[in-house]
Amino acid sequence: MIKQGDLVFIYKDDRRNFLIKVQGGRLHTDKGFIDLTAVIGKQFGEKVDTNLGEPFYLLKPYLHEMIMKVKRQTQIIYPKDIGIILTRGHIFPGARVIESGIGSGALTTAMANFVRPTGKVYSYERNEDFLKNAKKNLEKNGLAEWVEFNHQEITDEYPQKEVDFIMIDIGSPWTLIDAAYKSLKGGCRLATICPTFEQLTETVFTLEEKGFINIETMEVLLRRILVRRGKTRPEQKMPSHTGWLVFATKILR
């Protein structure tokens, strides 16, 4: 049963869908409003009608929607890239993970979801407004307890040592390669995302110089398919370039 404070994905179609925390009040849409107190006690999968009789459906929230519906003050890392980061990084229940540049908390949401119940994500962000917004997003998604929020810019060294994975998402990621080396366990990986070729090449060359191997660089493209009887085809619009992902593994000097 849906309870007060639960996170619910209220869905009608691709354009009309909302991730809300059930706390009373009304959800206003172009098809009328939904009385959110009437949602309490219903089961996931049930229908709820607006005051105009339009049906919406109460769905279990899933990680993709938690990521895509964070309140944004920055560009986010998209699920197409996050999936690769989660599988190529060393992120598991109990992992200790460092993140430089929390942004709006999209990747943080995913990593916190996978390190629980005994792991921790240590996030560092120099912009206080970004940090506060990301913290609110993690609290809404019910994942804040697995994140340590630090209003701090790291330059030389992270306080945490022997961590399992490090994500660097800042404008000059090569400046934190030494700090990452000091904190990673041997044989573990770091990742970064670079929107330009200049950032990419500087980062890769620095990784090669600083004791990292197994360096992988890639771009992830995603194209959705519009399925219709007799005229199925790819959608005309697609997310194009978001950034180049770089992964590298620490070896002991």
State the gist of this model.
The protein has 253 residues and is of the alpha/beta class.
Structure description:
With 253 residues, this protein is α/β, with parallel strands linked by helices. It has two domains: 7-61, Vcp-like ATPase, Chain A, domain 2; 65-250, Vaccinia Virus protein VP39 (Rossmann fold), CATH 3.40.50.150. Helices cover 23% and strands 30% of the residues. It contains six helices and 15 strands. The protein has a seven-stranded mixed β-sheet with strand order 9-8-7-10-11-15-12, sandwiched between helices. The chain has a four-stranded antiparallel β-sheet with strand order 2-1-6-5, with no helix packed on it. A two-stranded antiparallel sheet has the order 3-4. Helix 4 (128-140) links the parallel strand 8 (120-125) and strand 9 (147-151). The longest helix has 13 residues, at 128-140. The radius of gyration is 20 Å and the shape is globular. The termini are far apart. The model has no long low-confidence stretch (mean pLDDT 95).
Amount of beta strand? 25-35%
Which range best describes the helical content: under 10%, 10-25%, 25-40%, 40-55%, 55-70% or over 70%?
Answer: 10-25%
Per CATH, which architecture of the largest domain? Answer: 3-Layer(aba) Sandwich
Mean pLDDT score: 95
| Structural category | alpha/beta
How many discrete structural domains?
2
What is the CA-based Rg, rounded? Answer: 20 Å
Name of the CATH class of the largest domain: Alpha Beta
Quaternary: single chain
Q: Which regions contain 5 or more consecutive residues with pLDDT less than 50?
A: none
Distance between the terminal alpha carbons, to the nearest Å? 55 Å
Going across the major beta sheet, what is the strand order?
9-8-7-10-11-15-12
Could you describe the largest sheet, including whether it forms a barrel?
A: 7 strands, mixed
Determine the number of helices (DSSP H or I, runs of at least 4 residues). 6
In one word, what is the shape? globular
